[in-house]
Amino acid sequence: MADADIVGDGLLLVTGASGFVGSAIAIAARKAGYRVRVLVRRSSPRTNIQPNDEVVIGDICDRASLAQALRGVRYLAHAAADYRLWSPSPSEIIRTNLEGTRYLMEEALRAGVERIVYTSTVATLKLRDNSPADETRALSEAEAIGSYKKSKVIAERLVEEMVKQHRLPAVIVNPSAPIGPRDVKPTPTGRIIVECACGRMPGFVNTGLNLVHVDDVADGHLAALRRGGIGERYILGGENVLLSHMLADVAKIVGRRPPKLEFPIAALYPVAFGAELLARVTGRAPFATVDGLRMARHHMFFSDAKARRDLGYASRPYRNAIADAITWFRSAGYVR
Hints:
Blueprint (H helix, E strand, L loop, with lengths): L10 E5 L4 H12 L3 E6 L13 E4 L5 H8 L4 E4 L11 H22 L3 E5 L26 H21 L3 E6 L1 E3 L8 H10 L5 E2 L3 E6 H14 L5 E4 L2 E4 H12 L6 E2 L6 H14 L7 H7 L2 E2 L4 H7 L6 H14 L5
Helix pairs in contact: 1-6, 2-3, 3-4, 5-7, 5-11, 7-11
């Protein structure tokens, strides 16, 4: 399908549009000339919903609402997900991310949707010890750490199988760690920025991650919609950054002294256990989790060379993304 067949032609449904990545996709799509419809839950905040978007109230685990949302839709961007690294009920994460994806893809086939972009994550890819990981090595369910990773691995395999067995017209994108404006919950990476900007992070562990501006991720979704190969995976990333460097950049922007203490990961497990126990009592998400520490043992570095080559994908410097995130967090009252 050529670019001209897609840009500004037809109705695009975006799931997860009240959230971080989904709202960025909706904004980018509207700027590109698409008509945008958004699927949001009744309980979802409306902060990120634009007044000129068509809103359908529903849930990706409710087939009837999905059928209604997909009526007349030509394109679909499925960004809705439960991205918590911890939950008192892990089965909820798996149900939303796996069964919600299954229902939505099946209903999209029934509705005759022409092209789908499925938002996965780099968490479904195998890390490499001495070089950035790419799309060529997929993680198995057995290797996935925690319910979130496991759910996204299984869901990605489901989409791939539906492409093969049912000719699902889906392209898969794997964002790394998006940061930037409109991070309402916020995401785990956004929480790190907020805590550091507020002076509540005394130290760090020796880990690294790939940071990318959320608006670049959104543009990558549209590039995948226009030019991506059906059944292909594309990493939508930015720069590989040590956590210590990221925190130093945050501290510099807000005028604080950067954290200097480097904690051994093993020494933080009791803290994470205690934080999770407290979370079960208070109902508030723990800042440190056991699964998070297990993941932090590796530098989560990735290469987005395939997306740059095949999709024309591009990303801005990660410091710009951090600055935009802090500006938004300040305006929204997260950072004072």
